[in-house]
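Ligand: uridine 5'-triphosphate. Inputs:
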Amino acid sequence: MIVYVNSRSYFMKVTQAILPVAGLGTRFLPWTKSVPKELLPLGNQPIIAHLVHECLDEGIDDICFVISKGKEAIPLYFERHPELEKNLEAKGKSNLLEELKKYDSVRFHTVYQDEQLGDGHAILQAKDWTDQHATAILFGDDLFTDADSALRQLINAYELFTEDERGAVIALEKIPLEHTSKYGIVDIEKEHESQPRIKKIKGLVEKPNPEDAPSTFGIVGRYIIPRSTIDVLPNITSGEGGEIRLIDAFINQLGSEHIYGYECEGKRIDTGNPEGYRDAVKVWNI
Ligand code: UTP
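Predicted complex:
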């Protein structure tokens, strides 16, 4: 007997994630002169640990940080500290020891982005590290609450597709029309028959004025991208300010790759600015 039921999701499983955290964090200056904003606390752990746990909850245990010089404290947070472990063991502090060991089986990798030349440029720095058919991308500023994690929602959508249908899945949020100039906005071809939150995309526009916006679905900080998207990044002509933008890679691929959006459930909080961070503290410190 041949059983096909689980074979599809097994072979398509996403096991690697890139977390670009190389930005300068100017909105948190002067704090960010010495401390990366991703290490600001939310509850009893830093923001970046929330993202790592979002990956681990989906079985993604191969994680690449894209950092810039001066942000080494981010990967350091997840590294083992044998001396401290020995010390805690000697003092019988097994709870703390347990806490420190929770990342032991995770494979962390770090690459540098020497200049802040955009989100696509950040992902490009991890090009030689990824070796899977698809990779999860999580941008550090966006956290989601009141629903399954955004990554889980994207993975559920991705795993619905057959091998021929699969492609990129981009997290979307319905935003007010007057905010379109702050987001990448998608042009929707059609909704999935049984799962209307999944949308086939026929166009993307970076930060359009409301009168030019093809929809009010804005791109937010989670993606599943196929290998082909990483491969086209070196050919992307630089956008405004010499940037290599991920949205331009998707635009480049519209004729050759399936590009889907997923309208995420739940509330998104942008922790990348002080007001958003304050909101996040209220949610995660309770
Ligand atoms: P932002 O546009 O919020 O930039 O990047 P930023 O530097 O973090 O913050 P501000 O605007 O100066 O206050 C969104 C995400 O993309 C990453 C950032 O680290 C952040 O997680 N990023 C952005 C990179 O890794 N590299 C880039 O070149 C740009």
